[in-house]
Design brief:
Pfam families: DUF3097_C, DUF3097_N. 26% of the residues lie in helices and 21% in strands. The protein is of the alpha/beta class.
C-alpha cells in the first residue's frame, strides 16, 4: 500500500491567509503598519541582523522603524508585503546632439581668440543646432560671412596665429568652382579652409529626415532655394522653408557625412593646443 502524505498545516483551506502582493518600499510610498496603525511615508530601508526594516515618517515628522514582515502593511486599504526596492539600473551616459558625451552642469568656457567662420546664417544655425553644446564647452565662437568672395581680406583682418586659429567652412567647395579658387589663395598655417560639396547647406540635411525621397535638381540659372521650394511643392518662402528644414534636425544622425567630418575637423583645428 502507498502511504498517504498529509499537509503539516491542518488549517482548513478557506481559513488560510492568501499570499499578499509584494510592493517595493520606494521612497515616499505611503503605507499603514497593520499592528499599530501607524501611517507614514517610506524614508529608507535597512538590512539588520533581525532582517530588513523600513522607516516610516508620519505627517507630524515622527519616525518609526518596522520589520518588513509578510502581510505587514496596508496600501490603500489592501494588505501587502513590503520588499526592498530594486536597485536602479545604471543609466547610459547622456550625449549631445553631435554625439559627444554630455558634461552635466558644465559652464560655457570663456571664448577663445580662435574662430570658425561659415558662409551664411543658415550654416551658422545648423552648426549651433548640432555642435552648440560642444562649442560652448570649448569656448569656440561661430560667425557667419556674407559669402566668401572677400575671404583673403577677411583672413588678413583677423590676423590669425598659433593662439588664434581660424577655421572656415565653405559651401560648394569642389574642384574648379569659384569657391575652390578663392580657398587656394589662403596659405597661412593658422587657417584651415574646408568645405562640403553641396550647393547650399540645406542639402547637408538628409532627405529621409525631411520625409522627402531626395533633394531636387534645380536647373542652372534659377535661384536654387526657390527652385527647391517649387519642386517640393512648398510655399516659395525660403525663410519658412529653412525653419522647416532646421526643425527636422535633432542630432548628427540627421546630417550627411560630407558636412559632419568637415565641422569636426574645424573644431579640432581651432581647439588644438
Amino acid at each position: 500500500m502507498r502511504s498517504r502524505q498529509y499537509d503539516s498545516d491542518l488549517t482548513p483551506p478557506w481559513k488560510r491567509q492568501q499570499p499578499a502582493p509584494e510592493v517595493p518600499a520606494d521612497p515616499d510610498l505611503v503605507v499603514e503598519e497593520v499592528t499599530t496603525g501607524f501611517c507614514g511615508a517610506v524614508i529608507r530601508c535597512e538590512k539588520t541582523a533581525q532582517g530588513p526594516t523600513v522607516t516610516l515618517e508620519d505627517r507630524f515628522g515622527k519616525h518609526r522603524v518596522f520589520p518588513m514582515e509578510p502581510r505587514g502593511f496596508l496600501l490603500e486599504g489592501r494588505v501587502v508585503t513590503l520588499v526592498r526596492p530594486r536597485a536602479a539600473a545604471p543609466s547610459a551616459p547622456q550625449r549631445t546632439a553631435s554625439g559627444s558625451l554630455a558634461v552635466p552642469g558644465a559652464r560655457a568656457r570663456v571664448a577663445r581668440a580662435g574662430r570658425i567662420y561659415v558662409e551664411g546664417r543658415h550654416d551658422a544655425e545648423l552648426v549651433e543646432r548640432v555642435w552648440g553644446d560642444d562649442l560652448r564647452i570649448e569656448g569656440v565662437v561661430v560667425e557667419y560671412l556674407a559669402g566668401v568672395d572677400d575671404l583673403p581680406a577677411i583672413v588678413r583682418d583677423f590676423s590669425p596665429g598659433p593662439d588664434a586659429r581660424l577655421g572656415v567652412l565653405v559651401d560648394h567647395l569642389v574642384a574648379g568652382s569659384k569657391e575652390s579658387r578663392i580657398a587656394e589663395q589662403i596659405t597661412d598655417e593658422s587657417v584651415l579652409v574646408v568645405g562640403h560639396p553641396f550647393i547650399d547647406v540645406w542639402e547637408a540635411v538628409k532627405p529621409s529626415s525631411l520625409g522627402i525621397p531626395a533633394w531636387p535638381t534645380v536647373p542652372r540659372g534659377q535661384d536654387w532655394k526657390t527652385g527647391v521650394c517649387r519642386a517640393l511643392g512648398w510655399p516659395e518662402n525660403t525663410g519658412a522653408a529653412w525653419q522647416r528644414i532646421l526643425s527636422a534636425v535633432h542630432s548628427y544622425k540627421d546630417l550627411r557625412p560630407e558636412l559632419l567630418g568637415r565641422v569636426e575637423e574645424l573644431i579640432d583645428f581651432v581647439t588644438a593646443p
